[in-house]
Amino acid sequence: MDAGAERSGSMADSSTPTVRRRALLAAAGGTAAFAGGCLGRVRRFVDSDSPRRVRVRVATLPSDTDPYARRIARQVAEWLRTAGLGATVVPMAEEELYRRALLRGEFDLFVARLPAQFRRPDALYPLLHSRFVDGPGWQNPFGYENDRVDDRLDAQRRASGRRRMRLVRELQSTIARTQPFTLLAVPDDVRAARRTAYTGWRGVDLRSPLGYLSLNRTEGAAESRAGGQRRDDTLRLAATDERRTANLNPLSVAHRSDGVLTGLLYDPLGYATDEGVEPWRADSWTLSDDDAPVGRVRLREGTTWHDGEPFTAGDVAFTFALLSDTTLGEGEGATEGEDGSEGEDDGGGPVPAPRYRGLTTLVDEVVAADETTVEFRFVECAPSVAAHAFTVPVLPEHVWRERTASVSREGDADPTTEALTADNVPPVGSGPLRFEGSTSGQEVVLERFDDHFLTGEAAPGTLARRVGDVPFERFSVRVVGTGVTAVETVAGGEADATGTPVGADAVPRIGRSDALELLVERSPAPYVVGYNARRPHLSDAPFRRTLARLLDAEHVVEAVFDGYGRPAVGPLWDTRWYPESFEWTDGNPVTPFLGSDGDVDAGRAREAFRALGYRYEDGALVVGP
Fold it and tell me: What CA–CA distance (Å, rounded) separates 579 from 173?
């Protein structure tokens, strides 16, 4: 193992946040046995059914929620069993999986998609830094602690140019060696669309609200609109994810598979584009070149929320205060660790919004200088990194201030508030669309907000000018069940496009229809196998690395994705940050597969585990004398 890099998991200082989570998990009756990275400690733990056999449970989603996750999990379990481990697949509803894995840490392994937000270096900060080992959501759900990773995560925030590039690549190399998670493969997002009412489907990003705003209405649709027909006034999507209609809270972890709906409802100050972070709700901003940058943001004048209340600098300052602590200071009693993270408390303390934690930790203070001017003071970081904080959704103070009350849910390891749990229906935002109505689990309908700045004249060259006016009067998302059903709905003319990706098995159906356009786009959300480093065996980096060598990503691409995807080593694939040594030429360059053509070589797997100090009895991997 990386001596001095992979920290011991033994209980050290009762003031650390790690100890707090462990104690809570133990009280909740979870698997509360935690070990360090050394096999000597691991041997003190036994399995309740078979005292010496190494067993793991693989949590994942059911087939009707995700077209690939369960198939991948079953294949992973088969590979592990070939190597002698006891492996069981446990499918569960998505909200339950996220509650157990991302809130309580109650898992051994999980198979899920890593959210698209982790496609830039600084986003890896909340995912893997040890200060977030107690955080809910996608804040270090692996319980991973590595000094070298922490150092480089901190340093790359402050660096720029070649030095930042070197730090980010070193960071990825350490992550690949220690395997807090194994990135299996990146699927293609497959969608179907009709050309009847809207064009430009291939040239836009349908994972972003800006993609739908950038579509073009056909001449026939415009004529129908002028003639008073309602059909072509609405952009209709057929989706398979009912969470979209049941919850419109932009802070929710369990209900937000993407940010399209909430992005249409809530504007950020800026959007991250290929040109960098560009102003959106903000008219302009400046950032100083200090070690701890200072930002001054000018807002567009005369804008309002959907309920007519003025949009002010006070709302921006309030938003960052709420995201940093959704109790707004009511949760008192928290101490602060040496690294600036929250430490042990008596049940109170800040309750930050986990979805945007990595961005809000960039911000030290936000002050409304006047009605349209906001001043930001950032922690030590490069200005280009600081600007990403402007991409969080701005929330109306007059609505969200009342959502700071704590919510007690028996068994949860972390406190929460109404701001994080409210379904937020009806929502009040400032985006180009406003809420019209919904039927939970069935449909949500948004309508054009005529007072939005997109309806006015934008300055030449700005992002708003490039996007243009909203091309529809209404935006409807209807839940139809499976991906195949979604495609049939589009083919039958009842929808304009599939709002969520469908499985590769729907490609032949799309191809057979002259009315449909096949949209294939590389997804930014890869499938990963996440390891719980708080568990026996899994706390050991060499053990996790050996597990990674039992997984054949190329086989997943061919057998599960039907070739619509690609294998990769880390989440920054296809970016300038990706190390050349990670390029996939003849198998995985970091954790080569212990087998061939999707079949694990049991002999090689046994040799690898024996080298770690394990042994076999009747084909089963065991520990002990």
Answer: 8
Residues 437 and 532 in one domain: no
- For 384-387, the CB contacts below 8 A with 24+ separation are 384/160, 384/276, 385/122, 385/157, 386/287, 386/293, 386/295, 386/362, 387/270, 387/276, 387/277, 387/285, 387/287, 387/295
What pLDDT, on the 0 to 100 scale, is given for residue 606? Answer: 97
How does pLDDT run across 405-439, given as a tens digit for each residue? 887 654 545 678 999 989 999 999 999 999 999 98
Provide the 3-class DSSP secondary structure of residue 173: helix
Range of the domain at 393: 241-479
SS3 377: strand
Q: What is the pTM of this model?
A: 0.83
Do 268 and 172 have their domain in common?
Answer: no
Tokens representing 56 are 């793991």
Q: Is the dihedral of CA 425, 428, 430, 436 positive or negative?
A: positive
Q: What span, in angstroms and rounded, lies between the C-alpha atoms of 417 and 475?
A: 30
Domain boundary among 479, 506, 537: 479
- Residue 506 φ then ψ, to 5°: -90, -10
Residues 406 and 539 in one domain: no
51-88 residue pLDDT tens? 489 999 999 998 777 879 999 999 999 999 999 999 99
Q: Residues 6 or more apart from 60 whose CB is under 8 A from it?
A: 66, 69, 70, 72, 73, 89, 90, 91, 92, 97, 110, 111, 112
Residues 595 and 466 in one domain: no
Do 605 and 541 lie in one domain? The reply is yes
Cα separation, 489 vs 477, in Å, equals 12
Average per-residue pLDDT for the chain: 85
Burial class (CB in 10 A: 0-12, 13-18, 19+), 270: buried
Alpha-carbon span 94 to 117, nearest angstrom: 19
Average pLDDT over residues 133-143: 86
Q: Are residues 467 and 530 in the same domain?
A: no
**Whether residues 255 and 335 fall in one domain:** yes
Residue 520 domain-assigned? no
Least confident of 163-177, 208-222, 381-395, 598-612: 208-222
For residues 357 and 110, which has the higher predicted lDDT (pLDDT)? 110
CATH number, residue 164:
3.10.105
Position 267 pLDDT exceeds 50: yes
pLDDT reading at 621 higher than 50: yes
Identify the bridge partners of residue 479 per DSSP, sorted by sequence position.
239
What's the total number of domains in the chain? Answer: 2
